[in-house]
Amino acid sequence: MIALLEQDPLAFFLAFFALLLSLTLHEWGHAYAAFRFGDPTAERLGRLTLNPLKHLDPWGTLLLLLVGFGWAKPVPINPVAFRAYRFGLFVVSVAGIVLNLFLAVLFALLVRGFFALDPWAVALAFRGEGGGVVGVLALASFYASSINLVLAVFNLLPIPPLDGSKILQSLLPLSWHPLLWRLEQYAWLSFLLLLTVLRGPVQEVLRWARRVFFGFFFG
Questions:
Q1: Looking at the annotation, which residues are catalytic?
Q2: Helices 85-117 and 119-126, packing angle to 10 deg
Q3: pTM
Q4: Residue 42 and residue 170 in contact, taking contact as beta carbons nearer than 8 Å
Q5: Cα–Cα distance for residue pair 109/218, rounded to 1 Å
Q6: Is the pLDDT assigned to residue 195 strictly greater than 80?
Q7: Peptide bond preceding 161 in cis form (omega within 30 of 0)
Q8: CA distance 5 to 156
Q9: On the CB side of 6, how many CA atoms lie within 13 Å of its CA?
Q10: Which of 43, 53, 90, 109 could be 48's S-S partner, Cβ–Cβ 3.0 to 4.6 Å?
Q11: How many C-beta atoms lie closer than 10 Å to residue 110's C-beta?
Q12: pLDDT tens-digit profile of 109-137?
């Protein structure tokens, strides 16, 4: 995404605003779902809010700009407080991903709408040759869609503390859960692996997801 800053600064700042929105809504989704299932932990810690400053992780945001994937501050939850432990864990874990997928589709539809409005302007914008207001909005919407798709797919990875690990946990036998919760203490090791050994494979997965997603919307 950082390449967009050189290509079109205005589109970059619009896309960056969408990035803040996407990260914020992702974490708010977790907080809201947990609250609805009876866990007030996130609310008590001020995380049931749409204020980006409460949710953004500086390193995770920077990495999303530089290497194409990143994260926000995980919302603290207490699954023991859920009215339905297993179902609550699943819904809370998937809530942020669902919001990101919704935004990815919404922004992709906006790109199609801008293209229908002025195909030439959109083509110029994607070639880095201007395109006026319509072109800038289409380019920013494309990056916003890509950001949300990346957040959704990245968080589906079954690696603690990403959401995918908790989704998987909600489907596994309860006797495994204490061990899986203890693995959360080693989140730093997971992120280290994601930035080194697993970086290439993760980027391949994200590239594949983009090809499939944007191939469906744009052919």
A1: 27
A2: 110
A3: 0.90
A4: no
A5: 10
A6: no
A7: yes
A8: 28
A9: 3
A10: 43
A11: 17
A12: 999 999 999 999 999 999 888 779 999 99
